[in-house]
Amino acid sequence: MFQMSEKDFASGFLAGTLVGGVVAGVTALLFAPKSGEELRGDIANQADDLAQEAKKQGEKLKDQAEEAGQKAADKAQDSFDKAKDSVEKGAKKAEKNFNEVKDSVKDTAENLKDSVKK
Question: How far is the C-alpha of 15 from the C-alpha of 48, rounded, in Å?
Answer without folding.
Answer: 17
